[in-house]
Amino acid sequence: MPPGDPAPTPKISYPRLAVFVAFHALALAAIWTGISRRALLVCAGVYVFQLLSVTIGYHRYFSHRSFKTSRAMQFVLALCAESSLQKGVLWWAAHHRYHHRHSDQHDDIHSPKHGLWWSYAGWVFDAGARDTRLDQVRDLAKLPELRVLDRLWYLPTLPLALACYAAAGWSGLVVGYVWATILSHHATFANNCFAHIFGTRRYATEDTSRNNWFLAAITLGEGWHNNHHRYAGSARNGFLWWEIDPTYYALVILEKLGLVWQLRQPPSELLEERDAPASAAE
């Protein structure tokens, strides 16, 4: 990939960067707490819970409205997603919607065209990325409960951290909660960045999105990224039977339970398209 443009007006927020580094440093506390089998099981469970909460809630519902649900369940989805510490519901959805509208253009703040590190995580520390683009989420910003959650995005993770401590003591807190949260962050970072660099392209989208089976595995289906950019409103990213998409399977279960409904599907003619030529964006 050519070097491309520098990141749009990068201004690093060093206090935010310091918090990020400090949270990662907490992972080293496992040297003193130990790494128990129970804590590792808690870590795996929390990782799946946080990722599913982000992929179902932040991504497929709040960003793309790929299914319908009740107002109460909508609140629960936002609450669970904020336990991942990936900022507030309005912030996440607004930045992601903007990404789709400007994908791999100069204004796409986490495009790999701005450099690998910036695309992976550097953009998170940009002072300009702190603000919520309310113009992108007018539909969500009308709801007072979502505005409150967006302001207090750091609180929903506390019950999860306490549950990890209750399940496996200090090892549960460090290994079960801190490790899982760090891993879920990096899974999201990796998909944002590497799914625009490595993989295959079924559809000739106007960006550099790619399908990547490894990213799909660690992000519970989000790595079928070229599919997603071709038809972002679909509740499933794995368009073909062999494209494993655990997030979609979880949605099907929620649908059977009556908690969500009207899961949007990709058009049948789209599924028949194969081996599209590379786009001019590459």
The total count of strands amounts to 2
Distance between the termini: 7 Å
Helix content: 40-55%
Q: Indicate the overall shape.
A: globular
Rounded mean pLDDT score: 92
The residue ranges in which pLDDT falls below 50 over 5 or more consecutive positions are 1-5, 277-282
Query: Mind describing the biggest β-sheet?
Result: 2 strands, antiparallel
Q: What structural class results from the helix and strand content?
A: mainly alpha
Radius of gyration equals 19 Å
What is the string of SSEs from the N terminus onward?
HHHEHHHHHHHHHEH
Structural overview:
With 282 residues, the chain is mainly alpha-helical. It has 13 helices and two strands, in the order αααβαααααααααβα. The protein has helices spanning 14-26, 30-33, 37-63, 71-82, 89-101, 116-120, 138-141, 144-151, 157-194, 213-218, 225-230, 246-256, 268-271; strands at 68-69, 260-261. The protein has a two-stranded antiparallel ribbon with strand order 1-2.
Task: Give me some keywords for this one.
two-stranded antiparallel ribbon; 54% helix; 282 residues; disordered C terminus; 2 strands; single chain; 13 helices; mainly alpha
Topology:
Layout: H1 14-26, H2 30-33, H3 37-63, E1 68-69, H4 71-82, H5 89-101, H6 116-120, H7 138-141, H8 144-151, H9 157-194, H10 213-218, H11 225-230, H12 246-256, E2 260-261, H13 268-271
Antiparallel strand pairs: 1-2
Helix pairs in contact: 3-4, 3-5, 3-9
Describe the structure in brief.
The chain is built from 13 helices and 2 strands; from the N terminus they run H-H-H-E-H-H-H-H-H-H-H-H-H-E-H.
